[in-house]
Amino acid sequence: MIRPLKDGVIADFKVTERMLSYFIQKAHQRRTLVHPRIVISIPSEVTQVEKRAVMDSAYRAKVAEVHLVEQAMMAALGAGMPVSQAGGNIVVDIGGGTTDVAIISLCGIVYAHSLRIAGNHMDEAIMNYLKRKYNLLVGEHTAEQIKIELGSAYVLDKPLTKEIKGRSLMEGVPRMVTLDDSEIREALSECVTAVVSAIRVALERTPPELAADISDRGIVLAGGGALLRNLDKRIREETGLPVCIAEDPLCSVVLGAARLLNNFRLLRRVAVD
């Protein structure tokens, strides 16, 4: 498996270009002479060089117009947040490669921080924990399944267990161990703490006039990482603010992109120069 994008930025330029070309052709029923307008989400703190790499990849895939929008803004739009109003909104988008925390008001980002700790790093943390504690080697897919089935950010009401198969590092043969949710919570604790700390820093840097709106509206979680059990409860305990999960967290950014393509005036307001 090749990952053309890693930690929210391009890792393989040629493969990214081919991937974009494939998606464009698929969206236009395999027609080749198509030069569409596309919207691409980027993490909040990418450098000018990384932005240029994204733009170049898109233009080399025969695109007419490219618009870059910060990922947190797209997630907020996809979650149905009132980003064009004067009040403050805080959104936390926990994707695969990055976690974006942003405070949004009047279609602008007041404060944004992109953390290179997200879903993929949680999988790595589980793999390292099993290697360290059980001398067991598992793949990324198995680690992700463990995260989905046992992962949690706060103590569960009902304990969960799962049998895991992997390769023993000591004997080099297949081996099975039984894990419970408390072990995976321990493995994920560092990643979850980093996300919670990023939210606390964002709240500390919120302008006073927007703080009142945020205390009323609360924090909205988007992205696949928002589905981690009891993450909303953990953030609620740590911040004292109401926390809700977007209606379709996995597709929030994509839904936001679709909304922008249907509203070009809004796209002009939120696009990154």
Structure, explained:
The structure is a single chain. The strands form four sheets. A five-stranded mixed β-sheet has the order 7-6-5-11-12. A three-stranded antiparallel β-sheet has the order 8-9-10. Strands 1-2 form a two-stranded antiparallel sheet. The chain is built from ten helices and twelve strands. 45% of the residues lie in helices and 22% in strands. The model has no long low-confidence stretch (mean pLDDT 92). The chain is globular, with a radius of gyration of 20 Å. The chain is α/β, with parallel strands linked by helices and 273 residues long. The chain has one domain: ATPase, nucleotide binding domain (Nucleotidyltransferase, domain 5). The protein has helices at residues 13-27, 48-60, 71-78, 119-134, 140-150, 181-204, 208-217, 231-239, 252-262, 264-270, and strands at 5-6, 9-10, 37-42, 65-70, 89-94, 99-105, 108-115, 136-137, 161-168, 174-180, 219-222, 243-245. Helix 3 packs across helix 9 and helix 6 (181-204) crosses helix 8.
